Amino acid sequence: MKKILLGVCSIGQGHFNRQKLIIAYFLKKGMKIIIVTSGNEIFFKSKFPMVEIVKCSVPWIITNNNGIDFENSLLCHKKNKIDFFEEFLRMSIQIEKKFGGVPDLVISDYEPNVAKYAYSRNIPLVNLEQQSKFLLYDNNIVKNNIAIKEETSRLNYFFPKSDLKIISSFFPIEFKLTENIYRIPPIINLENKYKVSDNNYVTVYFSTYGGENSRRIFEKILKMISTIDNYEFKIYSELKFDNYKKDNIIFYNFSDQFIQHLRNSLFVISTAGHQLISECILYEKPMLLTAFNTFEQNFNLSMVNKYKLGSTINNFEKSDIVNFVEKKENYSNNIREFKQKYWKKSWDYYFNHIISNIIEN
Q: Could you give the angle at the alpha carbon of 108 between the alpha carbons of 130 and 113, nearest 5°?
């Protein structure tokens, strides 16, 4: 039986939603899996109660347009008061006890502790996420006054090398990829992939990224939608917003019901997370988006605008929604054409071929 160590970043829901499909893939193949994460263990346990989980904290690396911000990262480290090296050692001990030895393969979805473990034991490492694509771009790109170095410096710090990079991307990567770098379509659940209906409601998703620091953006979205009475808004948020209670604004905790609501909604309002955008494309749902103050989200938003898959929230006013709705059908048609052109085969078609080669070798 092959043994797979899988590290999953716990920021937001995107990493979890990607990797639950990868876990199901390996379990179906009869492989033993151990998950390493700093959070989301409740979600994993609810889906895979027999899979063992090891928790290990990840240092918060602050970046700016020059790359890693060492001074503020140091201040954050002192504030956390976590012994990350001790946690890494305890994690490594637990992994080998649970496996009864070392794993055959290590896979990381933006989780650096399993990468360090792979280096220390000289085990093949696969980066399976969507951030690595930024290493292929010009390192001087700036989006909305945020430099790509914010992403690339952190990637180089956490993952200085890997045996294979599998990049999940909702948009095409216009570069010649090397023999150990692959681009695959987004890793999303393809079951019941066709939309059921367009009900008279809008799905709104507030990412868990940033916690209370993101509240300002979310409150601006809530203020904007509170001016609209002819739609119901189904809002998924882990934060509480007691000041925005209306008959047509309903709050939900994140659950499997989210996908059902997304599939049946008229359109989606959210921040520009990669996984959320991918799900909207799959279900052909136009997107009205804003971006967190990160390069990745601003880059994602620029791709949505480039291919005319949705629109940007410009002023956080009623007019943003009204103008968007006028073009909604155009966005739906563009999404349909985009998907036919760039998503010709599913992620698992490519993944099965790529991962089989490395496991068998």
A: 130
Burial 191-228 (b: 16+ CB within 10 A, else e): eeeeeeeeeebbbbbbbbbbeeebbebbeebbebbbeb
Q: Give bridge partners of residue 109 from the DSSP assignment.
A: 8
Which tokens is 35 given? 């998950």
Strand order across the 249-252 sheet: 249-252, 232-236, 201-205, 268-271, 287-290, 310-312
**Long-range contact pairs involving 347-356 (C-beta distance under 8 Å, separation at least 24):** 347/168, 347/184, 347/185, 347/186, 347/187, 347/188, 348/21, 348/25, 348/190, 350/182, 350/184, 350/185, 351/22, 351/25, 351/166, 351/184, 351/187, 352/25, 354/164, 354/166, 354/182, 354/184, 355/126, 355/166
Closest-CA residue to 38 (of 111, 103, 95, 89):
111
Instruction: Give 10-residue mean pLDDT values along the chain (361 residues).
Output: 94 86 93 93 89 95 95 94 96 98 97 98 96 92 94 96 94 79 90 64 88 83 94 92 88 87 94 94 95 94 97 95 96 96 90 81 63
Nearest-angstrom CA–CA distance, 326 and 322: 7
Among 42, 21, 17, which residue's Cα sits nearest to residue 273? 17
Tokens of 89: 């050692």
Cα 84–Cα 89–Cα 92 angle in degrees, nearest 5 = 125
Could you give the CA distance from residue 130 to residue 6 in angstroms, rounded to a whole number?
16
Rounded CA separation 257/344 (Å): 28
Tokens of 174: 């216009």
Q: At what angle do helices 274-282 and 328-342 cross, to 10 degrees?
A: 90
Task: Say if residues 254 and 238 touch (Cβ distance below 8 Å).
Answer: yes
pTM: 0.91
- CA nearest neighbour of 155 among 135, 141, 137, 175: 135
Task: Count CA within 13 A, CB hemisphere, residue 56.
Answer: 28
Centre a 10 Å sphere on the Cβ of residue 329 and count the other Cβ atoms it contains: 10
283: which 2 tokens? 């279900």
